User: Fold these one by one.
Assistant:
Number 1:
Amino acid sequence: MKELRLAPHNAFTRQTRILGKPGMEAQITLETVGCNHGKCTFCGLGKTDSRFKEPLGRKGLMSQLKWAKDALEQEMPSIRKASVLINSHSVFESDVIRYRALIKGMHFIINNFPALAQLSLESRANLITKGEISKITRALGYPPLNFMELAVGIESGTEWVRQRQMRKGLTDVRIYETAHILAEYGWAMRAYFIYNCPGRPFEARTEDFKLMARLLAELKKETGVTLTLYANRGYVPEGLESRFRDFRIANEHETIKDIAAAAKLCKDAGVTLDADVTGSDEALTHASALEIKPGFAQAVSEFNAAQEIGALLGWLSRSR
């Protein structure tokens, strides 16, 4: 009998910068139970329905990872980073993925991605504990410095924006506590900044972007954690596009200016800026009524690979 294979939500690759070198990242978004929080205004997920009503066990997780491996087979020799994302609140929570299944899944990725230099896992920052990170680090045999990365949504450098307007429930104190834990156990941190945030006009997000870069600069200085600011356009689930129609991402010229301003702050602080704002999500592109031009996408890609602001400034001068 042929084995039933469950597919993840998606699995694709993108060029970026990984541990100081240009490289290819595989993003694998698992199908899991829906988010138990569903309060973040920018997310669009809400308390989503899911085909899974129980936590992912070993069989369900391995089926999705094997599907992703097969889908990425041709690019496997070039993939230096694997990012495991979810449509829920944390890969570490037992109501999302069972612990034994998670460890087996991580070993599967490590053993099947031959060029892997970094493995990234997604969680809410306020759900991370020292015991949890210590336990996983031991289970993986104490991997090299920054091999493990935690991806968390921070979204703004201002606490009151996160608390009052975004309803994230994430304080500055909790962000620093998480960063200290990660630094202690040799993990890196990837901090999400999502452009599309209903209720925050684009001019406000421009300022949020700069404040986020400043927060991460201070975070690195105080904790020593290796940091990446991951600027993403956001996620729009099918059927919820109307929530995002009134908020349209600025034109390419304004976006490049924003990235360049944040890039200077990040570079001065030794923080990597990874800008993924090139419209790979068709639903978001549709909701934003924005057509991504190849030249814009190329400029952002070149910046990500080299971390040189010149690629952005060159595009700005040519687009006038």
Note: Strands lie at 10-18, 21-30, 79-86, 118-122, 148-153, 188-194, 227-232, 272-276.
Number 2:
Amino acid sequence: MYPSSISFMISKLTMRQPEMNGTEDGYRKISPIPSSITGLPNLHYLGLGSNSINGTIPSSLFHLANFSQLRSIDFSNNQLTGPIPSSITGLPNLQSLYLGSNSINGRIPPSLFHLVNLTYLDLLSNNLSETVELDSFAKLEYLDSLDLSNSGLSLTTTNSTPSSFRNITTLRLSSCNINKISEFLKTRMELLEVLDLSNNHLNEELNPLCNLHSLKTLDLSNNQLTGLIPTCLGNFNGNLTWLNLQRNNFHGSIPQTLGYASMLQELDISHNGLQGVLPRSLANCTNLEILNLGHNFIEDAFPFWLENLPQLKIIVLRDNKFHGPIEQPRKRLAFTNLHIIDMSHNEFTGTLPSEYFESMHSMMMDDEDKSSLNYMHNDYGYYSVTIMNKGLEMTLVRIITIFKAVDFSHNKFDGKIPISIGRLKALHVLNFSRNGFTGPIPLSLSNLTELESLDLSQNKLSGKIPQELTSLTFLEAFDVSQNNLTGIIRR
């Protein structure tokens, strides 16, 4: 493939798929892995990721004579099929193997566990079909990062504790059909920072989590975990930044100790059986961006002290037992960074203070660049949330940064809708349905030029429907039924 004098000099080979006009899907496809990539004895890195490569991985590729110095292989995000070649053991110096996001099938070859220098192994999102003991990966004693999420593997654990995963910092095991994990969590994993066990079948109490003092990200969502939320989760040396416990069977109160996790950016404990009040210790979590408490049995007044959290972008209190009036804000600028607030399906009463809507600056600004899509995230992943939009419940797996929503539906609010709502010009969804609002529809709503869904139904609104609302050209869902309104909207 290369003149011999050049081939001995190449240490890094990366192929990236360029955009090509005139092809069927707009891209050039490299298919399959070129068999001519051989004879590069000094090659350290072989990167063919994101090239739409299909076919199988040629077993001849892993002969030591071809790549005696190879340290890293990246074939991720392609369309590869077939098994992982057992000849992979021919690369004893391999440290990184990225095969994620393909359609690789079959079993993991036993030879893979002989790659004693392997530090990064990514088999994410494949079609493997095998039941494997998680302990097997402990043989790779230098392993730093292991991602088997949605790989097709079914992982089992034994009743004995593996000797050590002493170098592991990232362990992603989402959707691996795991039934129990508590004994495995007693393993010596002092450096573990990221643990993802979401979308499994765990139905136990996980007190051994308290041994993982270095955790920064913990995702246990979509399991059947029981018992109380471990109080130790707030004591991980202040390192915890991402905690997702949604869709489990936790009960009892929210631990006060979570307020000690001062670096926390996401807290999602929605869809559980949690009771009691919201601990005010969370006011210490000044880095918090997402707070999702939806679908529990929390019984408390409106947590006004959340206005002191300057980074808050999403608040979900939906479907709890929050009650009482919403008082005037305690500070002049409250919730300035808020993008989404969902307080629906509670028992809030009284009038809405207009001052809150006068300080939600992020919902007022519509100056973001719409030519490129940006999503809310932190260093460990993308944020997600479930909302009502256009009459349908939908899950935003990724939340675009320009999306703004207010949902106060299914409460007992009364009085007039604040005129200041019209200042939230970047708003996409506004839902005030099923309350007791009175008076006319504010003309200021015609300022919400980005609005796609407006639901004011089942209130006590009166007067004429403002024709100015016809200027809302993006409006797709509009419901003002079951009020005392007159007139029609001509589009």
Note: The radius of gyration is 27 Å.
Number 3:
Amino acid sequence: GQDELADRKYLYSFDCMNWFLLPSITDSMIQQVAANARGPFRGEPSFVYPARTRHGDEDKGAGLVATEEMRLAVTVQQIDEEVSVVPRGAFIKTGDLVQLNRSFGGLSKAEGKSLDNYMHFREPKSIKKEGVQKRGDWCPSFDFLDVLSN
């Protein structure tokens, strides 16, 4: 895709030769997986976890089925959202588009030692512009993600 942040795709393979695209997750998919998937992964994407229902439970996910592939997609994308980190300046935002910054040459040794120079590579949840703007080199094209040190 055009947008490096919004258009990310995830793949899985059984043999490192043939690759399959994981579906993008939705809120209903997260509910289905949370309500039904239990135990270790089985290694079969088409495996259907039986619907779990509990008497008197008003859980929206109850009664819905989930597949192993759905569970894998939810797991991978949630882990990626929590742990993907990029150095400040590696990506640039122009308008609504996030792209690789082709002029980024890396962080200096001193910059690389500071968590303030690393950002979560996900949609921002809590940008604290005050702290970033105090740096003196704040740039809205670079500083559009949550800083790791916050």
Note: Strands lie at 11-13, 19-21, 48-49, 66-67, 85-87, 91-94, 97-100, 118-120.
